[in-house]
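Entry 14. Ran structure prediction on the chain below.
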Amino acid sequence: MVVIARPHRLGEAIRLLRERAGLKRDELAARLEGVSPGRLSDYESGKPQKYDIDALRVIVRALAESLVVDIEELWTEIMAIRDEELRVREAEREAEVLGNDI
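Output, structure tokens:
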């Protein structure tokens, strides 16, 4: 397992991994082909409602190289965190809809 603690949000996982690699956000962003520093910042802060899979692949590849870890293992962990975040968001939306119908 690559991630130190299992965060509940994808952005938090990216930030933790970046910090573990000893990189500042702009340093990681400089290694990301096709992913702007602004998008990386948005991802870390949890702003996007949808994640671009291609951008995530670029970010995960750069993190795996920086941490010298297996990219497939890291990708699997990142996707599990993303999937959990999406399930939580969907449950929150459903709860909000049900709350508004009462």
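The longest helix spans residues 71-101. Will compare against last week's run tomorrow.
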